[in-house]
Amino acid sequence: MTTTALPLVEHFALGLDAPICLTWELTYACNLACSHCLSSSGRRDPRELSTDECKAVIDELQRMQVFYVNIGGGEPTVRSDFWELLDYATSHDVGVKFSTNGIKIDAEAARRIAANSYVDVQISIDGATADVNDSVRGEGSFDTAVRALQHLADVGVSPKLSVVCTRYNIPQLDQFKAIADRFGAQLRLTRLRPSGRGADVWDDLHPTQAQQRELYDWLVRNGEGVLTGDSFFHLAAYGESLPGLNLCGAGRVVCLIDPVGDVYACPFAIHDQFLAGNVRSEGGFDRVWRESELFLELREPQSGGTCKSCDQYDACRGGCMAAKFFTGLPLDGPDPECVKGYGEMALSKVTPGAAPKPSLDHSHKGGVRGGPVPLTLTIRRPDKACDENPLTGVQL
Amino acid sequence: MAADPVRLDATTVLDQGWDVDPRVSIRPESFGALLYHFGTRRLSFLKDRRLLDVVQRLPQSATAREACLAVGLSEAELATYGRSLATLVATDMLVARRPSVPGPGDPA
C-alpha cells in the first residue's frame, strides 16, 4: 500500500499493542491421554479460572480489541460452562476458534455451532486411519472424530481438520486431504513440538529429514488450500517460503493463557522460563502483555546467534524457540529440525536427560482406559490443538 | 482460495461513497492499523496513519475523494490512496454506499 518506515514484518517482530489473537486453554481436563499432548493435559487443575473470571478476561480482550481466541485445552468442551463462555465471547466482539477431539460434538452441539457465525471449530486427528491415529490419541478416538465431522457436515458447518505431522502420518497426507474433502473441511497441518508429553515421544514421532522434505514439497504443491498455522517456517530454508509470515510470533503477536490464568509466550512453551505473568494479577492480562519483562525482551531485535552466519537465516530465522528449548538446545542456535542438518549436529552434543522438563504435568495418573499404544516399542503419547498464527496466508 | 476478486480502479473508488463493513473491527497500531473482518475471517493492514484517517472519515463523506481531501491529502496523493482503498474494497472491508445523488428517474 503506501509508504512505511519499516517493513510490516519488522513491526510484528517488535510486538503489537495487543495480540492479534491468542490461544486460551480453558482446562487441563481431557477425556483422552494423547501421547504427544503439548500441555500434558488429563486432570482438571483446582485453580482453573471460574466462569466469572473467564468472562472478565473476555471483557478485557474486547477492550484490547483482540480479534479472536483459539480455545483449546485439555478438551475445552468438557467444561460445563463451555457454551456459555463461547456465546459470551462472540457477543463481546471476540471471535472463537476452538479445537476439540469431538467427544461432545453431537447433533445438538453441531446445530449450536452452525447458529453462531463467529465460531469456527477444529477437529483433531493424527492419523488418516484408525490404527495410526489411535496409536497416539487412544482407542476409539478416530471414530469419535469422524462422528463429530459427520454431525458438522449434516448441518452445513465447514470445520478444520487439524493434524499434527508425525513420522507415521506423513505417508498419509493425501488421505488426510481426502477425508477433509469428504466432510467439506479444510485441512490444517501443524508441526509436532517436543512440548509437554511431546518431549517423551519426540524422538520416535518427529518426521525424519527425508519426510520433512516430502512434507515441504507436498505443502508447496497444495499451496494455500492447506493451512499450516505458519508452523513450518523452519522449512522455508528449503527454498521458497510457505504461505504466511514465517516469523515466530511468541509474545509479539500471539501468546497463551493457560487454564489457571498464567500467560506464556506461546502454547508450546509451558515452562517457567516463558511465563510472563497471570491474568489474576493487578492490571490483568493487559499489563502482562504490555509490561512483562519476558515479552519486552522477546520484542528486542534478535541476534541470530550461531545461525547468523548461515545463508538461510533470513528464511527460517533460527526456527522454533520451544522446539529448541525442550530438546536442550540453546535458543540462539539452530532448530532441532534445521533442514541444513545443523540441529541434528547440535542435538548429538546434548547430554541425554539434560533438556528442561515442562513445569506442569496434569497427565492422568496411570493413564486412561484404551489409552494410546505406540506403534513402536518405546513409550510415547501425542497432541492436541495448536496455536493458529493469524498471519497465515497474509500477503505482504 | 477464491480467485482474485474483481478490482476497481482508483478513480472509480474515489468517486463513490463507502462505508466500513459493520463486521470489520479496526485497531490502530503504531504503523497504521489492523483490520479484522469477522465474516470472512480476514486480516488486513493499513500501513500508514493517514490511510487510517481516511478510512475513519469515509462514513461522513459523500465520496472517498472527499474523505481524502478532508484529512489533508493533496491531489497528487489521491491515486495512491485510491489504490489502497481499492484493495480494501476487493477484500470486502469496505462496502459501497447506496448512491445519495438522485438518479435520472428519481423524483427531484
Q: What is the correct CATH architecture of chain B? A: Alpha-Beta Complex
Percent helix range of chain B = 25-40%
Tally of structural domains of chain B = 1
Return residue spans of chain B where pLDDT drops below 50 for at least 5 consecutive residues. Answer: none
Largest sheet of chain A: 9 strands, mixed
Low-confidence sequence ranges of chain A = 377-387
Give the strand content of chain A: 5-15%
**Count of distinct strands of chain B:** 5
Helix and strand element order of chain A: HEHEHEHEHHEHEHHEEEHHHHH
Determine the N-to-C terminus distance of chain B: 46 Å
Radius of gyration of chain A: 20 Å
Task: Name some characteristics of this structure.
heterodimer; A: 396 residues; alpha/beta; 9-stranded mixed sheet; 14 helices; 9 strands; 11% strand; B: 108 residues; alpha+beta; Outer Surface Protein A, domain 3; 3-stranded antiparallel sheet; two-stranded antiparallel ribbon; 4 helices
Describe this structure in words.
- The complex is a heterodimer of chains A (396) and B (108).
- Chain A is an alpha/beta fold and 396 residues long.
- Chain A has 14 helices and 9 strands.
- Helix content of chain A is 31%, strand content 11%.
- In chain A, helix 3 links the parallel strand 2 (68-72) and strand 3 (95-100).
- The radius of gyration of chain A is 20 Å and the shape is globular.
- The N and C termini of chain A lie close together (9 Å).
- In chain B, the strands form 2 sheets. A 3-stranded antiparallel sheet of chain B has the order 2-3-4, with helices on one face. A two-stranded antiparallel ribbon of chain B has the order 1-5.
- Chain B is globular and about 35 Å long.
- Chain B starts with 9 loop residues before the first helix and ends in a 12-residue tail after the last strand.
- The interface between A and B is medium-sized, with 27 and 25 residues.
